[in-house]
Amino acid sequence: MLKIENLHAAVDGKPILNGLSLTIAPGEVHAVMGPNGSGKSTLSYVLAGREGYEVTEGSVSFHGQDLLAMEPEERAVAGMFLAFQAPVELPGVGNANFLRTALNAVRRARGEAEMDAMQFLKLARARMKVLNMPEDMLKRPVNVGFSGGEKKRNEMLQLAMLAPKFAVLDETDSGLDIDALKMVADTVNSLRGPDFSALVITHYQRLLNHIVPDRVHVLSAGRIIKSGGPELAQELEASGYAGVQAAA
Amino acid sequence: MTAVASTGAAAFLGRYEGLRTRLPGARVAWVEALRNGAAEAFRAQGFPTRRMEAWRYTDLASVAGAVFGEPLTGVEDATEIPAAAGPRAVFIDGRFRPDLSTLDALPYAADSLARVLPTLDGRIGTIARPAEQPMAALNTMLFEDGLVVDVPAGVAGGVLELLSLATDSERAPAYHPRHLVRLGAGASLTLLETAAGPQAARYLHNPVFEIEIAEGARLAHGRLQQEGREGVFLSTVYARVGAGGAYDNFTLNAGARLARNEIHVALTGPKAEAHMNGVQLVGDGQHADTTTTLDHAAPDCSSRQTYKTVLAGRSRGVFQGKIHVHQVAQKTDGYQMNQALLLSPEAEIDSKPQLEIYADDVKCSHGATVGELDADHLFFLRSRGIPEAQAKAILVEAFLTEAVEAVAEEPIRAALTRGVAGWWQRQGVAGGIEEA
Ligand SMILES: Nc1ncnc2c1ncn2[C@@H]1O[C@H](COP(=O)(O)OP(=O)(O)OP(=O)(O)O)[C@@H](O)[C@H]1O
Ligand SMILES: [Mg+2]
User: Fold this and answer.
1) Predicted confidence (pLDDT) at residue B171 exceeds the cutoff of 60
2) What Rg, from alpha-carbon coordinates, does chain B have?
3) Is the CB of B383 less than 8 angstroms away from the CB of A77?
4) What is the CATH number of domain A2-247?
């Protein structure tokens, strides 16, 4: 369970999140929508522990642990996963080697048995098949020369391999074709269950037709100004943020 | 030139006066003339100082101010040496050890320089330039031993290991081996050189190589410099490559308190090639210098150089690379890249690429970069559960990839990978990427 209370965060001294509260129970999927620059990615980075995002007030507890006190890798081990809005390229780091290293780092930290190269490849190939990814993407350096959509698929591959307890998807649907969009939804839906929850950041109602959220929140100027059921996303799609912002 | 010789220079000159009648080749006139000439050059110049252009970034004051002893001649087995996988020449404190070497039944000649010196007239001192390089002068004045390899025309020599080990001695020995490698037309050899010593031992290892590669011959020369942390390693390689020949040098410069990897390659026949790649791993308290000069002295030759330096803690790195394209060297294709990665705010790199081009139809490029680890890359790896130290090691490995992948020879690449892993272990980091 993720419980964010009165979260304030600043970047370079500039306040971006201004008293954000949000509770996501195990098994739930919440969507966050909001205008450009409202602080959605900032929220995702604060949850993942990126340097330079200073929490000035508030708290985040994750399955009873103080998330903000943990290093990024500790958060990953505890089950936090962020699918990046703009995944980085890592020249010189092979995708398969990276994936296996990450998987084993997490497994080691959790006291689970490491995967040998054979077991790993078997699992990776199976996951890639579902994601409709060509196998040569394992051999290539992480995200180098990948198209925008391929990078997002690669994020979903990491999600599927690491099978976290909590996933933040930061606009994973942006720039994806219809088939890829369904693939993202399938990845999330296949993980859905009592031990998995997610925060899906998106600009489009379209994705939410495939990943039906339990709750939808509107973020504006670093705060949640409105929450509702899936119908809220449809409302926003039809009338934009202006009405919601004016009412708040 | 120098009014007052440094303590160290005076001590070495004194040693030469004392030993000159006992050094190998002492009664051979040409050897004596060679040594006397070198002694004159060394007397005139002393140790290099930072006033010399080629030594601006590397200060030898700590060497010039020290007095080193003679290596012991004993045969004590202070070092544990792994069993030889193939042909191998072992030198302990600069002296050839036939009991530890395996050089039988080779399709070429390989021997101790001390044994065959009188037969080497016209072969030694023909490429090295002691008048310009004081360390080569010191080597020429005092060399006692070395490896002499002669691969006849057309012979594929396979892999030969050259292992140079320092012992743990109170005497802080200095040794100046002279290695000669000659490949006849169309011959080939992979020479895998390792220089190592105990971590706490003080010593000076000052090797000079003279390498002659005839038409169409290929020498792959892998070098792992893993001297002990109190050692000083000052090495100079001179290589000359004939028409259609190739010299492939890969140096891992990772050990020693103070290390200089100086390489001079001359491409003297058309279509000769040089590949010079290297990695410098410089930890806290270390200084590592790679200085190369590449002479394009014939048309249609190509050269490729990629050097990567990683610096941690309080450390200093140097890269100087000069490409000299002579007027005759039309259609030269030259490339040089040197990149440094600073892992600490107390690390420093000096880099000086230099192109001197006297021909008009050439393609020559060079580049240099200095950077730090990318914070976004590091965060990405950590966000996937990889601990910070391991994530850094992965990114450093990735930085080195280009230089390492340029090494075509499998035995050299394998040795190199082991060398890099060893450096990480000494930095207290276990494991980088896991292969899948
Ligand atoms: N380093 C920084 N310095 C100053 N302002 C920053 C910095 N990083 C982010 N911001 C600002 O913080 C605000 C929130 O950015 P954020 O990326 O969280 O928005 P977002 O809601 O994800 O927008 P989008 O929908 O465009 O992805 C923006 O106004 C942005 O310009
Ligand atoms: Mg964003």
Assistant:
1) yes
2) 21
3) no
4) 3.40.50.300
